[in-house]
Amino acid sequence: MTYIAKPKLHHPALAPNALGYLRRDYEGSVSTLCAGCGHDSISSAIIQAAYELDLPPHRVAKLSGIGCSSKTPDYFLGNSHGFNTVHGRMPSVLTGANLANRELIYLGVSGDGDSASIGLGQFAHAIRRGVNMTYIVENNGVYGLTKGQFSATSDRGSKSKRGVVNHDSAIDMVSLALQLGATFVGRSFSGDKAQLVPLIKAAIRHPGPAFIDTLSPCVQFNNHAGSTKSYDYVREHNEAVNRLDVIADRKPIEVDYEPGTTISVTQHDGSVLSLHKLSEHYDPTDRVAALSYLAERQAAGEIVTGLLYVNPEPGDLHGALGTTDRPLNSLSDAELVPGQSALDRINAGLR
Amino acid sequence: MQPTRTEGPDYYHKVVDCQWACPAHTPVPEYIRLIADGRYDDAYMINWKSNVFPGVLGRTCDRPCEPACRRGRVEDEPVAICRLKRVAADNKVDVGPLMPPVAAKRNGKRVALVGAGPASLTVARDLAPLGYELVLFDGEPRSGGMIRSQIPRFRLPEEVIDEEVGYVTRLGGVELRLGQRIDSLKALLAEGYDAVFVGSGAPRGRDLDIPGRKETAANVHIGIDWLSSVSFGHIEKIGRRVIVLGGGNTAMDCCRTSRRLGGEEVKVVVRSGFEEMKASPWEKEDAIHEDIPILNFRVPKAFTHENGRLTGVTFEIVRAEYDDKGRRNLVPSGEPDEHHECDDVLVAVGQENAFPWIERDIGLDFDRWDMPQVDPVTFEATRKGVFFGGDAAFGPKNIIWAVAHGHDAAVSIHRHCMGEDVHDRPPPGFSLVSQKMGIHEWSYDNDISLDHRHRVPMLDKAAALKDVRVEVELGFDPRLGLAEAQRCLNCDVQTVFADDLCIECDACVDICPVDCITFTDDGEEPDLRQRLKAPALNLDQDLLVSGGLPTGRVMVKDEDVCLHCGLCAERCPTGAWDMQRFTLEMTHADQMGGAA
Fold first, then answer.
1. CA–CA separation, A102 and A118 (whole Å)
2. Which residues contact A122 (CB under 8 A, 6 or more apart)?
3. Res B408 pLDDT > 60
4. B22 CA to chain A: closest CA distance, Å?
5. How many CB pairs under 8 A join A and B?
6. Comparing C-alpha atoms, which of B53, B156, B170, B158 is closest to residue B407?
7. Is A114 exposed, middle or buried (0-12, 13-18, 19+ CB in 10 A)?
8. Tell me, what's the ipTM?
9. Which of A9, A24, A231 is nearest residue B563 as measured by Cβ atoms?
10. Residues A125-178: tens digit of each pLDDT
11. Which residues pair with B520 in a beta bridge?
């Protein structure tokens, strides 16, 4: 690990965002992960996305479980709320926090061990309940903290650093999320910030359960020949279906794409996702087509990345439950304890 | 674009902005680290080797290094490099044993040096250890040249000059013939020296030929002559009201000296605007601090007088106008002329070279400005065996340039005396050595201090103005010196990139605190500069561009504001980045050997 703090001095040309913060203001402490870890690039992408979205740091809650990936919230958004939960239990704690205070922006950060093994049930239920959150899995296909055992997302037939072949089927978290009803699903690669940063921005603006599976090579234990999660392998097999620009309330970004190759998806909050199609027939608003396309390309040995599915009119858990519009901590005693007559009315309604 | 060529000494030398900007290429970060380590003797010797007068320059240098300092581009102000040099000089214990030994045997060559100032002393320093017999002539009774005659004692104590001239004269074979002005180069050449070096400076102060000049001669003085008379104790007083004409460092020395010799109302009046004045910003600051107003855009028109006594100076008020080529013209503003009363005027409007003592028929060509023709590389005149350096070579500059000229002239003199071609000059040597000591351990302190520039403690103003011989700057004490030394970014510890080891994981891009590093598609330099994570708009600073990487992209590093913190190397999983210390070995005559 690195012992010195990242110097506070920054590039003189660094521009403040609408809130007056520099990108550097969204950093956390210096990473203690291994040098070259893909997770650090994802942290950096989150920092960039938060800066570009002008997020007020005190309105963000970042939650994680256990593992290399779950350590990373310490390395970004140092002025935001944080909660390091028990292994695999991040989705439940996030759900609870979201129910208590719907006004915060929820960022769940987890890994393939935390979300695909011990926390698979938690993951499934948070997604199917439609919790409004951005759920990022930093997927390296290996247990790095315990020195390189296969994880639940390791592909069948891939080799460990010591040459052992994996005989178990892999869990594909993207397909799972699509089946379980996530209304925003993307896959990206830690080594491609041009793709990852807009995806994270779009996910944060998405008012429903947004899931991003991010391939994030483990340099120490899963970056060898025979691995399907190495820098080289992912670069060779990466099949991006689209390039995304998030146009929030700012002036649209001019991009010179061929006419007819761009589609726009307007989200509920008014933000526009401008998608440059790389794969000719791919329609990211068609969930069933997305599932079959994924299965087809996966069989062909490709790793499909990009914004794979988005529902422009998603619902969320609060809508389904009909909860109060305001955070619980802003409710007065009179609102929380409405008195005997209110109880009588409820009881009468149940008779 | 082509991958950056880092093979020769120049690429990495240029990254060390201070060293590159220093005419003598002093390895600044190296001596600053030694100061931080409390190794003042070693820090002094590094300086002594490069610039011969660390104690003098640590107080008086024009510091071209400081405007170049990278710290000034990432923070408000550069490292106080100059005053750190003084810390080494002030705190050294005993450098005597570290000095080169007296040559075991004489090499039988005799060199005459005209003028005993910084240029000649540097030549002597470089040639003495090789066994040369060096004869220095100076018209003044003391050695040091302008260092002693023009720089006031309140900026540079006499002991410092004596000490540092002494280190040169003690090298053996150096003979000082003081009070012996050379009146004829022809006669000197006739004495049969193997080479002659002219380091006689730019000794003539420009006069101001305006009405009233003759009538007021008793109270209008030429700045450098007056400073010299003060230095040698011939003048001890000046009138109560003094006007200094001119905007260079000599003008600043004149006004501050006047304040110490009885001048109560001292002002500086310059033709140009305040910003365009030739004086260094810090010298202007020091003058203003001593209650000396600087009035700009005023052109002296006449000296006024009554009954044969100076009464003041009349000024025309002008303003600056720029033509389409950006050239400045001072045009009358139309405002009425101003009259400023005064008792004395000091004229510090420039200096010139003067060679009335060089005959024009000895095979030494002069150009149309009546300056000797001097080769800018070898410093040789058109007559073989005659060399020039310092202000005598290319007009008034400053001490550090004189030292740099001296080093180069010494190389030429040595080659000339050995019967070799003076144009055949060995290039400087250099080395790059990894500073990695352990997984996260470096041999230099990469934890960058966030301190702002420390101010040098000054003597109380009232006390300072009482005596022209009391040094006004107290210098950094070791504690402040350490704090200031820690501001240095160690730019000589270079970020060296090995293309073949890079796996393009982005770790260096993510950790770099100043967004120096970008992996992107190749392109021509102007286009590439715009496409970086932080556009590289400072064209004076180079890009380090790798060869093609496996993804087809290239790594581009903008050297401009790199903190040399080493985090890129620390976060690099494959060692593609390494921090390597760059050492430049300048070619000096005394290292060339050949002492036969």
1. 27
2. A88, A89, A90, A91, A92, A115
3. yes
4. 25
5. 97
6. B53
7. buried
8. 0.91
9. A9
10. 999 999 999 999 999 999 999 999 999 999 999 999 999 999 999 999 999 999
11. B554
Q: What pairs with residue B496 in β-bridges? A: B578
> Mutate which of B446, B451, B489, B506 to test chain A, going by most A C-beta atoms within 10 A?
B506
Q: Cβ contacts (< 8 Å) between B505 and chain A: which residues?
A: 36, 38, 41, 191, 217, 219, 231
B300: β partners = B315
B121 burial level (CB within 10 Å; 0-12, 13-18, 19+) = buried
List helix spans (H) across A215-256: 231-237
Rg, Å, chain B Cα set: 26
Task: Give the closest-approach CA distance of B211 to chain A in angstroms.
Answer: 52
Q: Can you tell me whether residue B584 is helix, strand or coil?
A: strand
Is residue A282 over pLDDT 70?
yes
Q: Extract the tokens encoding A339.
A: 């008195």
Task: Check pLDDT > 50 for residue B589.
Answer: yes
Which positions ≥6 away from A294 have C-beta within 8 Å? A172, A174, A175, A178, A304, A308
Closest CB to A191 among B73, B447, B506:
B506
Give the B-side interface with A, CB within 8 Å.
Answer: 73-75, 440, 446-448, 450, 503-507, 509-511, 513-516, 534-535, 537, 550-551, 561, 563, 565, 567, 570-574
3-state DSSP assignment of residue B83: helix
- Residues from chain A contacting residue B515 (CB–CB below 8 Å): 10-11, 14
Joined together, the tokens standing for residue B81 give 């490099």
- The count of other CB atoms within 10 Å of the CB of residue A274 is 21
Contact check, Cβ <8 Å, B510/A10: no
Give the pLDDT confidence of B553-584 residue by residue, as tens digits.
Answer: 999 999 999 999 999 999 999 999 999 999 99
pLDDT at residue A250 greater than cutoff 50 = no
Contact residues for B114 (Cβ-Cβ < 8 A; gap 6+): B120, B137, B182, B185, B188, B196, B197, B198, B199, B200
- A1/B440 CB distance under 8 A: yes
Element (H, E) at B409: helix B399-417
- C-beta separation of A111 from A70 below 8 A: yes
Burial of B329 (0-12, 13-18, 19+ CB in 10 A): exposed
Cβ contact, residue pair B534, A11, below 8 Å: yes
**Residue that has been written with the tokens 């650093």 in this structure:** A161
Do residues B467 and B445 lie in contact, with contact meaning Cβ atoms separated by under 8 Å? no
**Residue B197 reports pLDDT greater than 90:** yes
CB B279 within 8 A of CB B270: no
Q: In this predicted structure, what is the pLDDT of residue A253?
A: 45
Per residue in A180-224, pLDDT (tens digit) is: 999 999 999 999 999 999 999 999 999 999 999 999 999 999 999
pLDDT per residue over B198-244, tens digit each? Answer: 999 988 899 999 999 999 999 999 999 999 999 999 999 999 999 99
